[in-house]
Amino acid sequence: MKTTVTIIKADVGSLAGHSFVPRPLLEVAERRLSEAVETGLINSFYVFNAGDDLELLMTHFKGESSEEVHRLAWETFKAAAEKAGRLKLYGAGQDLLSDAFSGNVRGLGPGVAEMEFEERRSDPVVVFAADKTEPAAFNYLLYRVFADPFNTAGLVIDPKMAMGFEFEVLDAIENKTVTLKTPEESYSLLALIGTTERYMISRVWRSEDHEIAASSSTTKLSLIAGKYVGKDDPVCLVRAQAGFPALGEILAPLLHSYLVAGWMRGSHWGPLMPVGLKDSRCTLFDGPPRIVALGIQVADGKIASDDEGRPLIADLLGDPAFDQARWEALELASHLRRMGEFEPARLGPSAMEYTTLPQVLKRLEARFKQPSS
Ligand code: F6R
Ligand code: MG
Ligand code: MG
């Protein structure tokens, strides 16, 4: 039987602004998902936060886009949003853009990444979750991991990876996908995914056997809602080892910080800062954009757990090996913030269309006159 790993996330309210998800909301989610384990709907779960986003990591046998699993996530978010409302937390229910569930959370606000696969003898998976940025923030990371032999030695050394990988890329404006194969089409792939405003990698498969290797969320809240409703803080699942990139190859791109769109008001370029779970909260200028990575083992349909049934979670980016990237992120942050609202610290005009800036500019419209020659 195939196992499905599903992560569904939403911002349903946070503490003292868009900073982090406090314990009472995580507890609501833990209770709901425990009940779902008891009824057999899901096999295991882990609830955590990436900044102000509530993250529901689940394993089950229901396949991708399962209505039951998506409904469970939706109802869990609703319950957590109600709790957030009662506590008068900030932005209660922010990402739940619809009142009615219609079979799948895609298109309703939450972000989703899912992978269904036949378990190997041992199946390590890395779960990435980022806050104050957008799904295309993973373009750079996934390219480095699956297409760059200077990052991933396995592309050169491991015969199972020698045929390369296939990347599915979503054009978020046209809502169309294209699949490109590396190494043959790496330049074309870069031609697309370098434009992070429009193109995002949604899936990666190993070319040799078309085995799923990675899956990323692709929600564009502004395109769903037609207005700015926060950034689409993304999640991504990556399979590791034994014919996939090693854990260390998956994390290697985070030796350095890199710039992503998002940060304050979803309107600025900001440095992605790798952090451990204890530092998964956004502070400085509502950031810097942060990424956490959890290492899990998928075993017999579950997240491998201890004798008490607690999932075994490796909090990968808390490691001192990422201190340099954290310092680089702060260096970049201090350069960018000195520029205030001047481009390129602020996003360009087409990205700003999806923020609250146009409302401000509209007020000035009537005051524009022809220049006196
Ligand atoms: C970015 C984000 C925050 C808010 C900012 C203003 O994704 O969520 O940076 O945009 O804190 O929030 P409001 O308008 O709710 O005061
Ligand atoms: Mg928020
Ligand atoms: Mg968020």
User: Regions with pLDDT < 50 over 5+ consecutive residues?
Assistant: none
Strand percentage lies at 25-35%
Helix % is: 25-40%
> How many domains comprise the coordinates?
1
Total beta strand runs: 16
Q: Given the structure, what is the number of helices?
A: 10
Oligomeric state of the chains present here: single chain
**Structural class, from helix and strand content?**
alpha+beta
Rg, rounded, reads 20 Å
| Ligand roster | fructose -6-phosphate, magnesium ion
Return the average pLDDT rounded to an integer.
Answer: 96
Q: Which descriptor suits the 3D outline?
A: globular
Distance between the termini: 76 Å
What is the H-and-E element order?
EHEEHEEHHEEHEEHEHEEEEEEHHH
Report the sheet with the most strands, covering strand number, pairing sense and barrel closure: 10 strands, mixed
